[in-house]
Amino acid sequence: MKYADKIRHAEKAANELLNEVSSEKVRADLKENGLYEADIDNVMTSARNIIGDKLKPLIRTKLLSGMPIKDAPEFEKLDEATLKKLAEQEINAIALGEKDKVKQLLKAGTPPMEIFQQVRLDFYPKEKVSHQIATFQAVEKENSGGSRLLKIFGGMAIMLVGIGISAASMSGGGGGRLFFGLIIVGFVMMVQGFLTVENPY
User: Fold this and answer.
1) For residue 158, which of 182, 134, 129 has the smallest C-alpha distance?
2) Which has fewest Cβ within 10 Å: 22, 49, 164, 198?
3) pTM (whole model) above 0.70
């Protein structure tokens, strides 16, 4: 489908969805016009984007204010499935914003209790905030100088033990491979000491 055709269909679909025409009816009409399922999916996505540009700010305001969305007079003509989809998108967007807020507060050294007070737990649950805080603290501990030095010197010690025992056991055969494994483990451990762990959040 050409881009111009997709936009034309999407604008028509958006107008219908905004005027009490169901998603199922819009999809059926598009199919009758000869569109394939993949094209219909693209048109519906574009139609929701068009509607979202108009209504998402209002939807977000109502969500943040704790006001009902489903029966709001501003959306009474909007297809129910489309409204649900737009509301879900805004809820996810708000949750991502709260997640980023936690990240910035942690970087600023804000105590956990204050973080819980500043985050909208109705959108980003306490369990997720707790997990994000615990993960941040674990990564900070892992990246601390003491932990990294322990890995570096511990790895060096394991390597030296492995080298010494391997050299002594090579002539006896059999046991040499096991101690070469110690050398590898020590080397990996030492390299990890020079690297920092990236925070997944």
Assistant:
1) 182
2) 198
3) no
